[in-house]
Please model this.
Amino acid sequence: MESKDETLIRIGIADDNEPFRETLSEILAFEPDFQVVGLWRHGAEALVGLGRVKPDVVLVDINMPMLNGVDLTKRAREKFPHIKVIILSMHDDEGYVLETLKAGAAGYLIKDGSGTEVVRAIREVAAGRAYVHPQVTRTVISQFRDKAKLEDTWRGLLTQREMDVLRQLWMGKANDEIAQSLNITTKTVKNHISSILTKLDVGDRTQAVVCAMRRHWLPL
Model:
């Protein structure tokens, strides 16, 4: 039985772009402590291959046929929890990043990044640390800041109590339930709702909630 060299970081690559897959493999081969043990064309093939070669780290394209990168990450983490997943993506949007990290990925890289960046990410992840490409980190932080600004813009239009009522409407509560929750009268609730509709220039409470969600005042 072949023994595993504990000094090597064993790596798998799952990407449906063959030239990219082969080029990345050649780049990693220059690292003396790296060993590429598997190259796979799609997610389903990769899932089978992971069970056979059991790499330490697998690089996964987020957009693959048969089983995309997010679903592959979820299944790989369930079946082979010791394998660290690094997502390769063309997207630096917050939604993509959070979805993959939630699925269990330990790293996130932009595909047009440098080979040096990939090597650094593999070493970090293999050592038990998370790694997100600096460009992605900057973008996500910027998007969070922009969203936070949007979430706070209601203060220039609604009073705190009106926002409290709007949140209750978002929760689907009736007027009497809102009155009880906020310790105010039903008449006061109606007055607040009337004021909210006027300020948001909408016709009913449902439209008010939708308007607030679009402005990111309330969760979607």
Notes: The CA atoms of residues 197 and 207 lie 8 Å apart. The chain has two domains: 9-143, 157-214.
